Structures are given as structure tokens and as C-alpha cells.
Records
---
Amino acid sequence: MNKTNWQKITVSPQATILQAMQVIDLNSSRIVLVVATDNSLLGTLTDGDIRRAILNHNSLDSAVQEIMNPNPITVQIGTPLSMIRSIMEKKDLLVMPVLKDGKVIDLIQFKEFFSKPKIDNPVLLMAGGFGKRLGNMTKSCPKPMLKVGNKPIMETILISLIEAGFQHFYISVHYLPELIKEYFGDGSRWGVDIEYIYESEPLGTAGGLGLLPNLNNDLPLLVMNCDLLTKLDFASLINYHTVSHSDITMCVREYEYKIPYGVIETKGDKLIGVVEKPTKSHFVNAGIYVVGQRALQSVGRNEYLDMPELINRCVSNQASVQVFPVHEYWLDIGQYDDFQQAQDDYIRNFA
């Protein structure tokens, strides 16, 4: 990585978490370097650090120095690449700052050791819905085939997943399945494998899991709704699920809303405070999941089941269910206004 590029992912210790998120999203770097004005390395802030901060409800206006790692692993200039690769493999590091006299002069990325990422986990794209909320737009066209920019929504999703390294895909279909299969075929056009799961009757957002063939490995399955556009770091999601030893990992999105009234706080019949037009925050389902083999095998063939029901079932059975916050670009194309928004967003994020 040349000097100009690594300098694009530096921030000052006073920069906000939100500013660091914007740097990571803009440069697809998964990390920012926290440096002084003379490029002395003060710490690092990774994509994972930010997601943990979001889960802990840290304010995005907080300074990065409050959550950064002040003692990152680094190497000195002149360290052989073979040694750097060995350290990165043992420590599971994606990037390694190179220092000279405590100052950053380079950044080694683990992907530089390989020509192309490869993720063996299978993917299930849920494309069987009717898309009724979009009215006449989906009367003769399934929602995944609606064009955003110059491509069907699902093609943009597929390309994003292929670029992340996925190669084996299943597509669950029900409504107008022939239009989807005719366009995507067996996946050879994109150099991947695509198989189809046919729901003779709608089975809900998780019922298609019960129709999957026996997978030839124990790898967890990535499941994604086909009415989403996102720049989510899918490799980080898979890694998070794996290291968490989770049965299901649900991607969540922080949703804020403002109550347009003064909220009264009481204790019995006594008023103890008034909060004027407070903003509330909750995590909402982002429509992307990683499902382990134990959870997969709990879904019966042709069983009608929605994802929330499957997740609640797993929780009731003491299974491990984790959440993975999405701070990257994400849009659920549910309503007509969302579809129009997607047209504008496509140019900035996917064109």
C-alpha cells in the first residue's frame, strides 16, 4: 500500500467514531489508524471495535481514543514479508502497520498475499416473496428482478457476495420463478454455482431452509433477503459467527426515532421529570443471517416458518444466538419510496 493510500485511513485521536466509520466505509479498509500530527501511531480502531461500541450504545460522537486499541501489533521497517505473513496468520490479522521510529510508513494487507478471496460457506438467497407492498411494480415481475440502476436487485446482491469470495449459491423461489431462473441460470455467467429451491407453497422467511439438500460440509449458511442493498462486510460477518461459536447470527441495524412530545417520567402518581422530544434507539432485523448446522437441521421439510420464530425457538432451546450490527450502507426496499431511494443510492454505492 503506498503512502497516499494508507494516509487515507488515518484519523486523529479526537475524531469521532462516526468519522472513523465513514473512513472505513469509504475505503473498505476494516481499520483506521489513529495517528498524531507527525504520523506517530497512537492506536488502531477496527471494524469489530466499532460494532462492539454500537452494541454497547456508545455515542457515535465519542472520540475514537476512547475505544481504540492503544497497543496494536506492528512490525518495523525491513521485516521480511514471510515473517509478516506468519504473524498475521497466527494472530488472525487483516492488516499490519509498518513503523519506523514509531511512525507509520506503510500498511501491509493480508489480502496482498493472495490473488482472490475465497469463502466456502454456501449462501441462500430468499427470492420467493410476492413483493405486494410495491403494488403494480411486482404484478408481472418478482421484486428481486426489479432493476435498480441497470441491474436487477438480486444481481447487485449476487455480485457483492461474489466479490466477497462466495461461490456456492442456492436461490429459494416461489413467485414467478421462471423469470429468476431464466436470468440467473446455473451461475456460470458469473463463474459460480447456483441451485434452486422451489417452494410449492409459501413457507415463510425460514421455511426454505428445510428444503435445502444435505450440505457436504459443516460450514454455516449465509441467508439473505433479496430486497436489500448493502455494503456489509460479509467476510467479517462469517468470521464473527465462527469465533462466537454461534448457532445463529442475526444482522441488526440501529433504528432511531424521535418522540414528538414531552415524555413524562412518573413514580406512582408523582411526576419526577419531563424529557422534551427524546430520541429512542433500538436494534431492528436487517434481513441477513448466518445459520449453523444445528439450527438448519431443526427446520422440518415443508414446514412454514419465519426467521423470528426460528430464532425464538433456538433461544428457547438454549442455543447460542448472536447479533452483528450493520454500520455500513443498508437499505430495505420495501416501499415505493425506498425503491426510488435505491435508484439514487445505487449510483453512489454500486455503479
Note: The longest strand covers residues 279-291.
---
Amino acid sequence: MDSDLWLVVAVLLLLAMAGCAAVLLVRVFKARRLLLDAGVPLRSKALFWAAVVYTVSPVDLIPDPVYLDDIGVLLIALRALHTAAVRSGPDREDEPADPK
């Protein structure tokens, strides 16, 4: 009975990690779509594509049953895209307002 319990726990953990990776991938695509017309640097756009390629690639730092590396790469890409959008957005706090 103990082996069945561990098997169920392992499967649930794997499903949870795969779900997190899928949710993060969707968020990266949504963030990328929002940044298409923004003045985002090429470096941030390249990071997005690198995260997508790494996530769907069969080559991983950690074998595929563990999605921690994929989740980490997607989190880094999301943070970089968000930072680039904030920096390039028209509502920057450090820029003076338009005089009219």
C-alpha cells in the first residue's frame, strides 16, 4: 500500500509541475503579444524566444519528468519582458510629463 501512495504522490507532483509550466508558457505568450508594438529592446524579445524554445525542446538541464528548469526559464523571461515593458512604456515615472 505504501508504494501505491508514493506513486500517486509522484504523479500528482509531476502533473502540478507540468501545469505550472503550461500556465507560465501561456503567460509568456500573452506578455509577448502585448509587447509586439512596444519599444522593447531586441534582447528582451530574444529572451522570450529562447524561453519558448527551451521549454518545448527535448534537451534540458534537468530531465523532463522534473519541470523545474523549464519553469525557472519561463519565470526569468516573464520578469525580463515585464521590466522591459515598464521601462519602455509611455507612463514612466522618471520622465517629465508632456507640457501642453
Note: DSSP finds three helices and no strands in the chain.
---
Amino acid sequence: MALEAWLIDESDDEDQRLPHHRNPKEFVSLGKLEDLGILYWHLDPKNYENDEELKKIRESRGYNYMDLLELCPGKVENYEEKLKNFYREHIHADEEIRYCLEGSGYFDVRDKEDHWIRIWIKEGDMIVLPAGIYHRFTLDTSNYVKLMRLFVGEPVWTAFNRPQEEHPARQGYIKNLFENSGVALEAH
């Protein structure tokens, strides 16, 4: 199953959980996501506890902390408020690593021209968003996702809402983005 990503029609104020395709649809390649520093793997979510490939990724990238999050009505206190917070455009000082074990949702990221790209993660999709990339998250109309969250060291949950142009993680991301333009990143 291939990861799906597309440019969003930003003029629409409809429900954030809808796909928001442009007309005509404009899909984005995995190569373009890699150019933005986003890494992707497709793994076996039914075997995550014994998955050798996941173990290798965790060891090679230093992901020593893991927890699970189920996001849906009834499972999360203040569900609607949390979903709104996840959907605010922000950055993190560290990578954001998410592995979708069940359900689905959308990560939106900004491209080099500051347009939104919507990445639809489904069961088995694992993505790494680089530190400093502007992004947001929402569920799709299924209203359910179970995610594995991975971290290097102790988890840091701090989101820095846009604008954050002076934040060291943002400055580092921008520097890498334009210095490495055209240089292939680690692809999976």
C-alpha cells in the first residue's frame, strides 16, 4: 500500500477531517516528501511487538522511548479540544515519529512554497517529520487512530505555534532544506 499525499485546497473552510483535494487533484510524490526531510516506511502493524524491521529502525535512529495513543471520541478526555490543538500549525524542537497501528488520519506539512501538503496515514504507515517543519494533525472522517509515538530519550510534547522563524529547530530545518535541495535523503 502506497502512502498518499496531495496539495490541499486552502480556500475551503469545511470540516478539517475531509480530504480537501484541489480541483483537479494534485498528488505529491514520496520523493517530494523526502525532499522536505520526511521519512516513510510501511510496516506490519499487526506484528509491531515482534517486527524486526521496526526494531532495526528504532536501533539505528535511537528511538528508545515508545508509547501508544488512541485518539477518538470517548477514549480521550476533551477530545474536540485536543483535536483542535493538534490542528494548530506548529513545530517541534525534535522529530515527530508516528506509526499508525489502526485507523487513519492526516498530517499536513508545509512545502518550500509554504503550501499545505496533506499526508494520509493508514495502518502500517510510519512517518518521521523533521524537527522545525511546520505541520498539524487531524483525524479523517473515520474519527479513529491508534498511533505508536517514538522518541529519542525522554518524550518532549512541546509544540511551538507558528510563527517560529527564530526558533533554532526552525532555522536548522530551513538551512538543511535549502542546502540539501536536490540531495536524496535516507529513503525507505
Note: The CA atoms of residues 2 and 42 lie 8 Å apart.
---
Amino acid sequence: MKRRIAAVGTALALGCGSAVTACGGGTSSTTDTASGKVGVVLPLLTSPFWESYESYVPKQAADQDVRLLQTVNSDSDPSKQITDIQNLLAQNVKGLVVSPLDSAAIVAGLNAAQRKDVPVVAVDVAPDKGKVAMVVRADNRAYGEKACRQVGDAVRTGKVVQIQGDLASVNGRDRSEAFSSCVEKNYPGIKVLDIPAAWKAERAAAGLEALYTANPDIKGIYMQAGGVYLAPTLSTLRRHNALVAAGDPRHVVIVSNDGIPQELDAIREGLIDATVSQPADQYAKYGIYYIKRAMEGQTFRPGPTDHDSTIVRLPSGILEDQLPAPLVTKANVDDASLWGNQIRKTS
């Protein structure tokens, strides 16, 4: 299912003359790199997306000859995440792959790692500041923009709900700001009703219940995390006899983010209209890829990669490899290359 990463010096050029570069420290042997273990910190495991990511991590580590400690789950608690990082540093890990819960709070953990000269790769969420070798992420503003276009073109006028992520996370901020600004600019007839759900299913359920009760004429919903929000959203609509398939004039247009198998099934059934497939498999693959090379002393620079992405420099100065995140609709939901279809076959 997965291709082995290209070696140093091949397509993801690791020479100082290329656009995407690992400059600085010399390369260590695979044996030297493997002698130091890597700690992987997960933000939560109450979402099928993060369960899938966790399942990919050990496979990618094995493929790339990287030794891992057991993954750590921070249980949606930014304070616990800092403690988790400190505990891993106390175990003398030589590298960390961390998925931050709070873009500001994570800086304390990054600083602790820097004091011990332990490189960090951030996956899925960029920190506001601090030292990381690379952020492995997709363009989250594009998520909001794609959702806006899908919902806006279908609804045109009326009320639309945005179930937001945690606004302490750059992901929640990027998706929310992009969606809202796109709607305001392109669909003046749409009114956006926000639910600040903080990646928590119970908040999404309570917020949608209240909004739908007060606004039974809701025409669309944008869920910023299908792995957390899909089940409560469908349950709430079903309870109000409003869960009808696309094609029915009473259908509520729903666009999501994640690309989990459950979302793909819901698209097939016509219950939701689209999702942006967040690449859980590629997050694991390139999280391991970059931490291995950072442990070897390599550094990177902006430019195109060999895996259909571009490394950009964020306003904070941090580098981010923006991986592709395709929009999935009824037209391409059965595409075998989607990780949500692949993981079903291997699970």
C-alpha cells in the first residue's frame, strides 16, 4: 500500500543546489539513526482519523528503519501533552513527532526539546512559534475554501452551520477564517452560524441540537473534523427527521474534513456531499521521513518536493511541507488511491 521513501539525494533533492534542500550536518548511517528512539505524541484517539494515523506510524517507522517508543496519547489535553513530551525527553529520545493540540501551548514542549537538542517534527498542526525541523501538514485554509465552494454553490442563500475546531489550534483558525471569508465574499445570501466545538463530539452535538431547534431551515453544514463530528451531526439530523439523501429537496448539504472510511460511506449513501481527504497515511510517512533526517543533522528549505507538495515558510519562519488533500465527492469516492479506501482493505 505504501511506497518506500526515496533515498537521500534522489527526487526530494537533499543537496544545497536544489529548491528543497537538506543543508548542514552530514548524513549518519541507518544504523546510527536507528540507535536513537523516536517518541510520537498523538493529540487524541477519539477520532477514526487519529486511530488511522496511529496505525500507519509503526508501519512507516519499520519501512524507514526508525525505532519508536510506544505512541503516547495526550487525550485532548494541552497540559498533558507538555507532560508527555517531558516524559519522553526523560527517556532520552533522540527525536519527537508531535501533533500539537494548542498552537501556542505547545511552545513550552518545543523549548524543552530544544534545550536537550532533540529535533521535533510537528504533524497536522503548526505551532505559533518555536523550533521544529518541519511541519507536515496540508493547507488548512484550502479546506475552508473548498468547503465554502461546495456548500455555497449548492445552497446559494439561507443559513449554514460551521462546526468549528479548536480555535486555539491554527487548524481551527485557518479553516474557520477561510470558510467565513469565502462565504462573505462570494455568497452574500448565506448566513453562517458558528458552533465552536473544539474538536469535541459532545460540543458539536449540543451546539447543533440548539441551532437546529431554533433554525429548522438550516440548509448546509460544514464539519471541520468528520472523524469527531460526523456521528453526532447525522444523529442530530436524524432525530429531527432531516437526514435525507442528496436529490431530495429537504437534503441538508454537508461538507466535511478528514477522509475517514465512514465519511466515504456517507458520501456513497448521499448523506453528506463531500469531504477533504486529510492524508493520514502521508502524515505518518513524512513525519517519520523528516524526523529521521533531522536526527541525522539535516535541515531543509522551501521549494517543491518529489511527492506533489511544496515546502513553504510560514510567517513564523517555520517550514511546512503542505501535502495534497483532495476533495472527495460522489464522483471520485471510490478512487483506490484515497487512504480511506485503502485502510479499509488492511484493517
Note: Residues 1-34 have pLDDT under 50 and may be disordered.
